[in-house]
Amino acid sequence: MANDTAYDAAQDTSLTPVMRQYFAAKQAHPDCLMFCRIGDFYELFYDDAILVARELQLTLTARDKEKKQPMCGVPYHAAEVYLQRLLRKGYRIALCEQMEDPKTVKGIVKREVTRVLTPGTAIDPSLGAGDSNWLAAVVVLKSGTAGLAMVDLSTGDLRATEFPGPNAFAQAADELGRIRPAELLYTASGLGLSAQPTLAGESEKTEDSGLDAIRTKTAVDEYVLTAEYALPLVRQHFKVHSLDGLGLAAHEAAAVAVGGLLHYLRSTKQGALEHVTQLRFYERSGSLELDAVSVRNLELVDPLFSGESVQTTLCYTLDACCTPMGKRLLRATLLRPSLELTEIEPRLEAVAEAHADLLRRESVRRAMDNILDLERLLGRVAADSAGPRETMALAATLACLPELRRAVLALKAPRWQALAAELDPLEDLHELITATVVAEPPATLADGNVIRPGLHAELDELRELSHSGRQALIAIEERERQRTGIGSLKVRYNTVFGYYIEITKANARAVPADYERKQTLVNAERFTTPELKDYENRILTAQDRSLEIERRIFAELRAQLLAAASRIRDSARRIAEIDLLSNFAHLSALRGWTRPQVDDSTALEFVQARHPVVERRMEDSGIGRFIPNSLYLDAQNGPSILLMTGPNMGGKSTYLRMAALLVIMAQCGCFVPAERMRLGLVDRIYTRIGASDNVARGRSTFMVEMTETAAILNTATSRSLVLLDEMGRGTATYDGLSLAWATVEHLHNGIGARSLFATHYHELTLLSEKLPRLQNVRVSVKESASGIVFLHTVEPGAASKSYGIEVARLAGLPQSVITRAREVLKVHERAEKNSVSASLLEEPAPSLQMTMFTPLSQRVVDRLAEADINSLTPLEALNLLADLRRELKDGPK
User: Fold this and answer.
1) Which residues of 774-800 are buried (b: 16+ CB within 10 A; e: fewer)?
2) Range of the structural domain that residue 480 is part of
3) Which of 84, 117, 150 is the last residue of a domain?
4) With the CA atoms of 521, 527, 533 and 535 taken in that order, what torsion angle do they form, in degrees rounded to the nearest 10?
5) Residue 93 sits in a domain of what CATH number?
6) Are 580 and 326 within 8 A, CB to CB?
7) Is 388 helix (H, G, I), strand (E, B) or coil?
8) What integer pLDDT is reported at residue 40 of this predicted model?
């Protein structure tokens, strides 16, 4: 029976009541996998069962002998593992729960959907401490302004931004590509996608690379992302009359996106969201901008290729943080380095002080040793999934805050002092928890004995009654043994029959007449007595009443903690920054990094710098020492472009990436691996390093390269840092050389950005004679009779030749191929020895052909190469010469 018949089936009286409940729930949530609670299992039926059995490798069974009603299920207590596997695959899940206790209900138990789990709303226990699980919403208003909002339910972190102008959506898509949310909300008109709901796991196809990486895209109704509907939701949630205080006064698009998130969280029944107490609006232009391409190419937070080790990332290399909050802030800071000297300098000063004072630095770090994930603990309290032990874990974390505050106060830099002053130690909340919950509580409230003795008088009385009742049962057992003479008589309890007296069948003749039989077993009989019934009623009533009181007290504690959610989140943010700065100081001292000089100049200079990631990997693997290099660029007073030539494997790409990573580290407020560094603030970093095609979207490697290069040339400024590696290699040699030549000229004359341009086109080195702010540099090699040795050193000057064939030899190509390649190379070198004339360095007249690049001259060269000069007669040679001259003079026919 297919899901699209759910409505009719729900009305079909021939179905069992449970199946009618199932189909009614499925009709309300057609795009979700329906997990229906039946006893101790979550069951799925029909199409959902077939899909889940396939995805989770479960056994597919059926409710009928004909197997026309397929079903499968997972144990209720182990369901979390299965749910997370489906969510990671992009599926949406509806939980249809039993709303009544089956023991107390006659007939069918009421069931209804209590929560919808989606990739962006589920809190994954396996989520890394430094990772965030973003749910994002994007909207484009009629004005053209794009709004973007994102929330991480596990921490309550809510952020928003917006993008004006004609390229607004492209910028929003690029931002989405950078943060990579687990789920994106949109309207059909906003993205031009289908508004039809898709089954979870089936994502829409889009035409923007920033959206390609988002697996789950969820369409919402058009009205949801409108100002009329969304803005009141924002005001209602934050309990404000105006959006001005939230920083959204002039940002309607961002506010609408926030409202769309709140609507979705309500519709999927994510609770009251008490821990989402703050909204942070940010301007993308307020930080060093890194597009999704640069974030990927530089491997800031994720490896370049899927399946690679995270050890290739800068985030891993810089992560010695003590707390989960610090790890997440590190990741966020690497993606958004500061662009303000007023923020960077206080950070560097704080790092410098901690760097120089080992004892105080380690005091701060040791004070964070026992601090757990304060934000996610608060998130669990808000989701009502925090049990007694999680609550005590929260108390243990709060107990660390006063000592941390004292340790930070010992440091005198202004930023340290500000952080200490702003850190709320939350001592009242620690006292509240420890005064309410026992020191070593059970796992769940249902186990009882969670609340401290002495807190509630009635609870203490009930506990005493329960305890004395148990003692009375022991006395009853002993008295009945004496009365009956049955030494093996036992008084026992189970949830089905309550308290009972168990007597073996061998002693059945000695059972007193006043015993009332309750159950017959194979080898025993179970009985009860009026006295036992009375004690059972008193004890169970006391236990039930005790649990009721404990639940109420615990709920009151939860409400008090959530009332202080803003204070807890503020303290968590201060802890994160303390952790981040002390982490930078720790790494700088450990690895010999130095403080960079950051100013408003247009310079970028580092002396004897090392690539932080490569250096650490070399040290960890013991394969040698990283060879440092220096760099000097100045858009106004020195070379603004370094044109790098040299062989593959010589280290050009490493040098380019090193320059970018050092800039990012410096503008994050971290010391850098260099003897000295001076940095004039960089507003954007662009990278064109490596290429990959996208056949599914009809884009070749060269098209991807040109698209990314176009973005650079159209948006870079004189304060940007541009890194281009092997531009133009995806097309014909002369096309690629022409494009590379023109691009270098545009960077020099039209933009003035600080640029590193690595190339194998040695012809480009001639530009140094024409462009005054371009300098040639090369990666050096040492030649010997046995081949070449890579020195990995960057030095002034152009490479004298390419070493591609030598690299191929080192890679293991057959010797016959290497020999033939050298022969072919000599032929081409002779043909092109004088092919690049001075006309390339001058503006060519409109009627003039540039001899190297025109198809005409290439045909002349080809005819010369094909001619067998040794076999030509003098007359044939004269005729060939006449033909070539005529072709040069008259042009192509």
Assistant:
1) bbbbbbbbeeeeeebebebbbeeebbe
2) 457-547
3) 117
4) -90
5) 3.40.1170.10
6) yes
7) helix
8) 87
**Radius of gyration in angstroms for the set of CA atoms belonging to the chain, rounded to a whole number:** 36
Closest CA to 113 of 183, 51, 27, 17: 27
Q: How many of the other CB atoms lie within 10 Å of CB of 543?
A: 16
Residues across the chain: 893
Asked whether residue 689 is domain-assigned, the answer is yes
pLDDT at residue 197, rounded to an integer: 41
Tell whether 759 and 624 lie within a shared domain: yes
User: Could you write out the DSSP letters of every residue in 107-176?
Assistant: SSPPEEEEEEE-TTT---TT--TT---EEEEEEE-TTS-EEEEEEETTTTEEEEEEE-STTHHHHHHHHH
Domains of the chain: total: 6
- Confidence at residue 321, expressed as pLDDT on a 0 to 100 scale: 96
Q: What is the b/e burial string over 639-677, where b = at least 16 CB atoms within 10 angstroms of the residue's CB?
A: bbbbbbbbbbbbbbbbbbbbbbbbbbbbbbbbbbbbeeb
How many C-beta atoms lie closer than 10 Å to residue 41's C-beta?
A: 17
Give the three-class secondary structure for 485. Answer: coil
Q: State the pLDDT at residue 878.
A: 74
Give 719's DSSP letter: T
Report pLDDT for 211: 73
- Quickly count: other Cβ atoms within 10 Å of residue 347's Cβ: 22
Per the structure block, which two tokens stand in for 565? 């959610």
60: which residues sit within 8 A by CB, 6+ positions away?
49, 50, 53, 70, 71, 72
pLDDT at 814: 82
CB 369 within 8 A of CB 392: no
Question: What CATH number is associated with residue 247?
Answer: 3.30.420.110
Note whether 371 and 404 are within 8 A (CB). Answer: yes
Same domain, yes or no, for 770 and 640?
yes
Question: Do 579 and 623 reside in the same domain of the chain?
Answer: no
Q: What is the rounded (10 degree) CA torsion for 802, 806, 811, 813?
A: 110
Those residues with Cβ within 8 angstroms of residue 233's Cβ, 6 or more apart along the chain or in another chain: 259, 262, 263
348 in the same domain as 416: yes
Return the closest-CA partner of residue 148 out of 120, 185, 192, 203. Answer: 185
The pLDDT value recorded for residue 393 is 93
In contact, 301 and 335? CB cutoff 8 Å: yes
Left if phi > 0, otherwise alpha if psi is -120 to 50, otherwise beta: which for 737?
alpha
3-class DSSP assignment, residue 93: strand
pLDDT value of position 815? 78
How far is 591 from 662, CA to CA, in rounded Å? Answer: 14
pLDDT in the model for residue 210: 60
In angstroms, rounded to a whole number, what is the distance separating the alpha carbons of residues 485 and 510?
8
Q: What is the pLDDT of residue 534?
A: 82
Per-10-residue mean pLDDT, the chain, length 893? 46 74 89 91 92 90 76 89 90 90 78 90 78 91 91 92 87 88 85 43 44 82 92 92 86 94 90 88 88 90 85 95 96 95 97 96 96 92 87 95 97 97 96 94 87 90 77 85 92 82 91 90 91 81 87 94 94 97 97 96 94 91 87 90 83 91 97 96 87 46 79 90 83 78 91 91 88 91 66 82 67 76 69 50 43 52 70 74 73 52
Structure tokens at 654: 């490493």
Partnered with residue 492 across adjacent β-strands are 500
Burial of 609-638, coded b for 16+ CB within 10 Å and e otherwise, reads: bbbbbbbbbeeeeeeeebbbbebebbbeee
Hey, what are 721's tokens?
């840092």
Question: Which residues does residue 149 pair with via DSSP β-bridges, in sequence order?
Answer: 137, 160
Of residues 768, 731, 734, 762, the one with CA closest to residue 748: 768
**CA–CA separation, 10 vs 22, rounded Å?**
8
Angstrom distance (rounded) from CA 665 to CA 710? 27
Question: CA 766 → CA 756, 776, 889, distances in Å?
Answer: 16, 9, 28
